[in-house]
Amino acid sequence: MSKQDGSSRQVTTGPVDDSGTPILHVDMDAFFVSVELLTRPELRGKPVLVGGTAGRGVVSAASYEARRYGVNSAMPMSTALQRCPNAIVLKGDYRKYSEYSRRVLEIFGEITPLVEPLSIDEAFLDVSGARRLHGSPAEIAWTIRERVRSDTGLTCSVGVAASKYVAKVASGRAKPDGMLVVPAADTVAFLRPLPVSALWGVGRVTEQSLTRLGLRTVGDVAQMPTDALERAVGPALADRLLRLANGIDPRDVSTHRVEKSVGHEITFGHDLGDPAELRRALLDLSGNVAVRLRRAGVVGRTVVLKLRYDDFRTVTRSRTLAEPTDVARRIYEEAAAAMDGLVGRGELVRLIGVRVEQLRESGAGAALWDPDEEWRDAERTVDEVVAKFGRGAVKPAALVGRAADRSAAGARFRQPLDDGDAAIEH
C-alpha cells in the first residue's frame, strides 16, 4: 500500500488546546486528480491516475483509491498499471491546476497575510494575528477547509501545530479531507511513535543508515547519543534530526519565497547512448534553465547534472563556479564536463537533467570582472527576440537539423513541482 493512501488517517474531532499552535500547513488532497474530477464526477470513488501514457509516461497524481494498490506519484505509468490494471488514466492540464491553486491562495490571503506557498498545492500560514477576526487556530483551519470546499469544490487537509515541521507532519496524518491539531505540550509525544521517514530530510538512503543503527522511530532518534548519530550521518544532519525529533523548528513563515534551485529534465522516447545526441539535449536543457534564471532575476553558482540509465540507476554530478551565472553557455559547459566519463561506454540513458543551485539575486555582490559578459549580452538579446516572435525563433545551431529532431522525438520535458504530485509532462 502507498504510505499516503489514507489508511493511517488521524484527525481532531473534539475540543483541543490550540492556544500555542499558530502555524497551519494546508495541503490539497490528490490535487491534480481532484481538479479533474470536478468535470468528471462519474469517476469519483474509482482508481484514477493523472499522467502520461505514451512510452515513458509517469504518474503525476493518484487518487486515494489507486494509492491503495501501491501506486504513487513519480512512478512509471507502466508499473502503476501493473499494480492497478483497472485504473483510469487522465492527461494533465497544468494551466487548469495553476488557476485552482491561485484561487486557493486567495482564500488563504483573506485569512492572513502571512502565507508561504511551498508548491502548487500546499502552503504554510501563520495565523497569530488573525485570531481576533477569525477565531482560534483550529477554528481558522476549519474555516479554511469549508471555504476551499465551497469556493472550489476541492478538499484539503490541515495540520495545526506550534511549528512548521510538526504542522506539515500533522496535515499528512490527517489526509484525506481532515484536520489534526497537535497541542504544543503534546508535540514530542505526537512525534515519537512515527517512523524515521517522517523526519524532514530523511530519504531512502538516510533511512537505511538510521535503520542499521536500530533507529526505526522518531523517538529512537531523539534518544540517540549525539556522537553516535554524527558518526552515522554527519554533524550537520545529526543536529537537524535531533532538533526535529524533539519538536524544535524555529523557522518562521516567510512570505518571500526564494527558489532553492532551477532545473529542467527530459525523459527520452527511446534510450540514447550517443554522447553527441546527449550533449545536444544538454544544450537545450541548459538554455531552458538559463531563461528561467533570467526571468526570475537570479544567478546560481552550482550546476548539477542528472543522468538516469536504462536500468534506472541514477547518478548526479555537480560543479561549483567561481562566479554565479545565468548564462546557458556556461551552464552547458559545466554540465557537459560533468558528463565526461559517464556516457559513451555502451550505457544507454533514459533521462537527463540540468539544475542550477546556490541561487542569489542578480547583481547582488557582482564581481568586478564577468567572464560571461559577452555571452550574457547575446542571450539577453535572444530573450528579446523570443519575447517578440515566440519560442523557436532563435536557437543554437547545434539544435537545428534532423539529428537534433531525432534526439528529441517522443521526448517529454518535465519540471519538478512538489513532493505530493510528480511533474506534469508538457
Descriptors:
426 residues; Alpha-Beta Plaits; five-stranded antiparallel β-sheet; alpha+beta; 38% helix; 16 helices; DNA polymerase, domain 1
Your description of this structure?
With 426 residues, the protein is of the alpha+beta class. Helices cover 38% and strands 21% of the residues. It folds into four domains: 23-30 and 101-189, Reverse transcriptase/Diguanylate cyclase domain (Alpha-Beta Plaits), CATH 3.30.70.270; 32-94, MutS, DNA mismatch repair protein, domain I; 192-245, DNA polymerase, domain 1; 261-414, DNA polymerase, Y-family, little finger domain (Dna Ligase, domain 1), CATH 3.30.1490.100. The chain has helices at 31-37, 64-67, 77-83, 94-111, 131-134, 137-152, 164-174, 187-191, 204-212, 218-222, 226-233, 235-245, 275-296, 328-339, 373-389, 402-408, and strands spanning 23-28, 48-51, 59-62, 88-90, 115-119, 122-126, 156-161, 179-181, 261-272, 298-309, 314-325, 349-361, 412-414. Strand 2 and strand 3 form a beta hairpin. The two termini are 29 Å apart. The model is unreliable at 365-369 and 402-426 (pLDDT under 50).
Summarize the structure.
This protein has 16 helices and 13 strands.
Outline the secondary-structure elements:
Elements: E1 23-28, H1 31-37, E2 48-51, E3 59-62, H2 64-67, H3 77-83, E4 88-90, H4 94-111, E5 115-119, E6 122-126, H5 131-134, H6 137-152, E7 156-161, H7 164-174, E8 179-181, H8 187-191, H9 204-212, H10 218-222, H11 226-233, H12 235-245, E9 261-272, H13 275-296, E10 298-309, E11 314-325, H14 328-339, E12 349-361, H15 373-389, H16 402-408, E13 412-414
Parallel strand pairs: 2-4, 7-8
Antiparallel strand pairs: 1-6, 1-7, 2-3, 5-6, 9-12, 9-13, 10-11, 10-12
Helix pairs in contact: 4-6, 11-12, 13-14, 13-16
